[in-house]
Amino acid sequence: MTLLLPQERTRADEVFPGPPDGAVAAFTPPSYWWVAVDGVERYRVVVEDASGRSVLDEEVAGNLLVPRTPLPPGAYRWNLYADDRERGWWSFTIPSGAPERIVPTAAEIFACIPGRHPRHIYDPQDLPPLVAAHPERVAALRR
């Protein structure tokens, strides 16, 4: 007998689990999210293709998994496991032509931040053309 992992929202501030059963993904790979269960510290997400082959099997500490490997078009199903319980399989489809969306990690984002100070939206080489294009605003910048 399999014990169910509850995924019903009980508060307005909880997420709706997704991708929902029967969803068509807008991009690949889709992210996976679910209602956090009290007392659960780690979750396991398993994704299988239409043949039943596992294409993702990953443990996470929170209630969100953002994979970095795109899935090809096709039918898939995913299940959520924790503490000898499972939610049950939900299906989704990656349509042909779905764009790839690889979400950068925090480390990748921080690596793009310049080390010099002060940090601005524009690099020094961008400023002369901006000043030339908007001379009426230079006085405000010098205040």
List the helices and strands and how they pair.
Blueprint: E1 3-4, E2 23-24, E3 32-33, E4 43-49, E5 54-60, E6 64-65, E7 74-82, E8 85-86, E9 90-94, H1 106-111, H2 127-133, H3 138-141
Parallel strand pairs: 1-8, 2-9
Antiparallel strand pairs: 3-6, 4-5, 4-7, 7-8, 7-9
Index terms:
143 residues, alpha+beta, Immunoglobulin-like, seven-stranded mixed sheet, two-stranded antiparallel sheet, 3 helices
Quick summary:
By secondary structure, the chain is α+β, with helices and mostly antiparallel strands. It contains three helices and nine strands.
How is the main sheet built?
A: 7 strands, mixed
State the separation between the terminal residues, measured CA to CA: 72 Å
pLDDT averaged over residues: 90
- The overall strand count is 9
Q: Helical stretch count?
A: 3
Order of helices and strands: EEEEEEEEEHHH
Structural class: alpha+beta
Low-confidence stretches: none
Radius of gyration: 22 Å
Walkthrough of the structure:
Helices cover 12% and strands 27% of the residues. The chain is an alpha+beta fold. The protein has one domain (3-112): Immunoglobulin-like. The strands form two sheets. Strands 1, 2, 4, 5, 7, 8 and 9 form a seven-stranded mixed beta sheet that branches. Strands 3-6 form a two-stranded antiparallel ribbon.
